[in-house]
Amino acid sequence: MTENRIKAHPILIDDSVADIPFFWQDQTFLAKEGEMISSALIANGISIFGHHPKDHSPQGIFCANGQCSQCMVIADGLPVKACMTPVKSGMQVFPLDGLPSLPDVHPRDTLINQPTPKCEADVLIIGGGPAGLSAAIELGQAGVRTILIDDKAHLGGKLVLQTHRFFGSSEAVYAGTRGIDIAKKLEVALRQHNSVEIWENSTAVGVFEDKSIGVYKNGEVYTLVYPKMLLIATGAREKSLAFPGNTLPGVYGAGAFQTLVNRDLVRPCENLFIIGGGNVGLIAGYHAIQAGIHVSGLVEAAPECGGYKVHKDKLVRSGVPVLTSHTIVEALGKDRVEKVVIAKVDRDFKILPGTEKQYDCDTVLIAVGLDPVNEFTKQAELVGLPVFSAGDAEEIAEASAAIFSGKIAGRKIAGYLGKQTEEIPAEWATIEEILKSRPGEVTEPNLPELEEGVFPIMHCTQEIPCDPCSTVCPRHLIHVDPSDIRHLPEVDYFAEKGCIACGRCVAVCPGLAVTLVDYRKSNENALVTLPFEQDPMSLAEGEEIELTSTEGMSLGKATIKTIKKIKGFENGTSLLSVEVPRAIAKQVSGLRIIETTEPTPFEFDTNHPENLADEAYICRCERVTAGEIRALIREGVRDINQIKAVTKASMGACGGKTCLNMIKRMYLAEGIPLSEVTETTIRPVFVEMPVRVLANMTDDEGERS
Fold first, then answer.
1. What are phi and psi of 236, to 5 degrees?
2. Rounded to two decimals, what is the model's pTM?
3. According to CATH, what is the number of the domain 20-100+240-366?
4. Is the separation of the CB atoms in 586 and 573 below 8 Å?
5. Domain extent listing, the chain
6. Which of these ranges, 257-261, 408-412, 691-695, has the smallest mean pLDDT?
7. Is the pLDDT confidence value at 536 over 80?
């Protein structure tokens, strides 16, 4: 039996055992306690969860966040989203092939419609991620009666998927701490406040005209909450991308991939290819390498990656080809992804014919940006309920910015309710602006001429908000301007009390962009200390490794002298030292971890349609292609409701959460401003739920039907 579980990881430790039996098409599999059906199936080698009723196309996981419906299965006779439904002992799970059959009806003489439970609160926070948690802490400190709801079993949002150390301010937003640990810190701080009630496994399904919010609790109860104020901290949903093969099993959103790898320690693939060079795609690529997954390459349509250069550097140092001004042409495969075709694009992002290349891969990761989850905000404004937004629901930025955004929102709401006596410090707005800022220009490396003693080399050459290295040096030799932490760090190489080679700056750097160079022991060589965050068992002292520069250039091979951890940084980061010639010591910044993949030329065969772009699916639920929608736009349709009526786009189980924004982008691509386009009406409920729960139906013994 295939078991795709991650047994060794440099950061994550999981001692749980897969001992919960369940059945997939009458075959017995094992799952972990609380594991979602989707993760359990993939862990057991199942990637196809069913087939679409329209064209029998294979369906698998895509978002792993309940935003789409591609992972639908039949569990104990009912259609459910596999990514949001935990396995139960003895559960019978079957693929959804075609339309589901309705369960047998057993009429009851005494079915009772109970009154819907109701409650009040000063503030309702939707979303228990970094913004929601930070806001709740502020409200808790002010004694505001608050309910915080989140649709997951654990608080933290996307923080629980982030194993890397965070950038930003060490003082303001825990910079230098891993996302998974920040989530724990925020939760501990929140649970100290009795005025905040926490509802996990609870989904907001709609905002209604009586200013109530419907909440689906624990898969069993429907409750109406009447808050004085509403805070939307729902984060963002990933943008999709239209290309032929975009619905094949093995095409994942980045969040789905990180959920499997970093939350559930499930290894969903062997060979990954990434589309998108923002921070999400770059970080996910490195997370894949940490999980022992080969990364064939990454493409970015823009001339430069939009993410932090230090994240890109991690990949290129490791051996991953990063190709800018390139995009995906199509994903190839019968039942799942087998290959990906890429090509160069011009300044207008049009594919340049003849530049196509093909890479072998079994998974394509889509990381092409985020859209705010703002339907709750719009509906609250429509019905006149006072509403605030924080984090990505307000403005797409880094998670560190979301933490501070939530802090400010919580303080503002407490003030509006008359529960906050302290004014918001003026400098908070500046800190928020810095944390939300885009990466700056890349500068030339400023390497010191010094070749004696021991000192750190800063391999970061792009201004981004980050200061952990300046906070851990015991001699205070590293300086970052406290008034604007986007400035590059400066090292005092000639201090009276110099570097003691403690390695703390190497271990804490979120970008793994600091090395130590020690010239004290040899006139010909230097000892270089590197950060290493891979499986500690994958290398050993005395082993030969290939060293690389910041830009991924090979600097030759060297033998590992030592591998060690230092006090306070035992969780994940090892310090690896090698002896190299003095001439290259300052250039060494990493080591090649994976074998670089070489592409093969690709030629379209005669069976390919003339316009590949028309073959991509825009609406996954109803299998509506770009060609169908583009034809309507070119016929003069300017009302998305008409597109919906003709094609059924956005009428599937996901409620248009992906396709509607893609349709808007298609209008823009056709040169039609959105001011001329009538949007379709989005009505609650925004998230599907069983009618029996919505109606609060019970039998005469109080059992829910």
1. -135, 160
2. 0.93
3. 3.50.50.60
4. no
5. 20-100+240-366, 118-236+372-436, 454-591, 617-705
6. 691-695
7. no
